[in-house]
Amino acid sequence: MSQKSRLVRIVEQFYILVKAAVIFWWAVIRNGVVYGWVKAYSELALYLRMPDLGIKYLRGHYAEQITKNKLLSFLVSIDLALFFLLSQQAKPWHTFVWYQIMIVVLLLASIIYSIYLTILIWCQQQYQMMPQQHYLLALTILVKKPLLSLTLLMCVTALGLLAWLNLWLFLFIGPSVYCWLTTKIMQRLLNHAEGVGNWKLVEYH
Questions:
Q1: Do residues 186 and 155 lie in contact, with contact meaning Cβ atoms separated by under 8 Å?
Q2: How remote is the C-alpha of 156 from its chain's centroid?
Q3: Looking at residues 134-163, what average pLDDT do you find?
Q4: Is 197 helix (H, G, I), strand (E, B) or coil?
Q5: Is the confidence at residue 197, as pLDDT, over 90?
C-alpha cells in the first residue's frame, strides 16, 4: 500500500508540474509575450504553493503576490532577442574576440538577472512589505547569500542545459520544475536566515 500511495503521489506531483507549466506558457501568451515573462512566472510560483485552489482563485485573492512589473519582463525579452540575434550571425563573426566577449558578458548578465528575478518573486510571495522593499531585499540576498546564489546558478544552468538538449521536455516541465526546486531551496536557506526571515509572512488560506 505504501509503495502504491508513493506512486500515486509521484503521479499527482508530475501532473501538477505539467499543469503549472501550461499555466506559465499560457500566461506568457496572454500577457503579450514581451511583457508577460515575470507575471507568468509569478503566477506559476503562486500556483505551486497552493495548487488545490486553482489559478483563477489565486489571481483574484492573491493579486498583490503577483509581480506585474512590465519593465522586468521587457528586459527578459530584450535578453532573449539579443541571444537569438547573436546566434544567427554569420559564422566568421564567431572568431572575433569582441563577439566572444559580448556573448560571455550577455550570458553572465542573463544568469545574474534570472537569479535576481527568482529571489524577487519568492520574496514578494513570502513577505509582507512595500514593493520597493522587495526589490531591495532581493538584491541584498543576491549579494550577501553567496551559497544561495551559487545554488540558484546551478539551477539556472541546468534549466538552460535542458532547453539545449531537449526543447520539448523543457517546454513541458522546465519552468515548473525550476520554480518548484528553487522555492524549496529558498524556503530551506532563507526562512530563518538573519535579516531575512524576520519580516511578516504572507498569510495563505
A1: no
A2: 9
A3: 93
A4: coil
A5: no
List of residues 6+ apart from 142 with CB closer than 8 A: 112, 115, 116, 119, 149
Place of cell 501568451: 29
Three-state DSSP string of 77-115: HHHHHHHHHHHCCCHHHHHCHHHHHHHHHHHHHHHHHHH
Residue 195 scores a pLDDT above 70: no
C-alpha–C-alpha distance, residues 16 and 38, integer Å: 20
Judged against a pLDDT cut of 90, whether residue 54 lies above it is answered with: no
Domains of the chain: which residue ranges?
2-190
Global pTM reads 0.88
Distances (CA, A) of 184 to 106, 119, 125, 187, 189: 28, 12, 13, 5, 9
Cβ atoms of 35 and 71 within 8 Å: the answer is no
Per-residue pLDDT of 34-44, as tens digits, reads 999 999 999 99
Residues shown for the chain: 205
What residues contact 109, with CB distance under 8 A and at least 6 apart? 79
Q: 143: helix, coil or strand?
A: helix
Under 8 Å between Cβ of 31 and 39: yes
